[in-house]
Amino acid sequence: MFQSFKNTLIRNFFIVAVIPPIVVGFIALEILSSSIGREITHRNELLAKSIAAELEIFLLHPLKLLQQIRDVSDKSEIRFSKKLQQA
Prior knowledge:
By secondary structure, the protein is mostly helical. The chain has one helix spanning 2-86. The longest helix has 85 residues, at 2-86.
């Protein structure tokens, strides 16, 4: 009978003292991991948008330079063709 009482106390202690913290820990782990996942996704999106904006600015300068070269080239062709017509 004493052994049965001892086993009952051990089992009840295990149920009351060990299982609830484990369950709470697993719930907290799930909530925390999903929260961290959302935060990481949000930061990655911000980083991607920032990189896209910087890349657009970086590529815009050579594009403007090429447009200027085209404009100068078009003007010089007009001058060259006028000189040919006059000759």
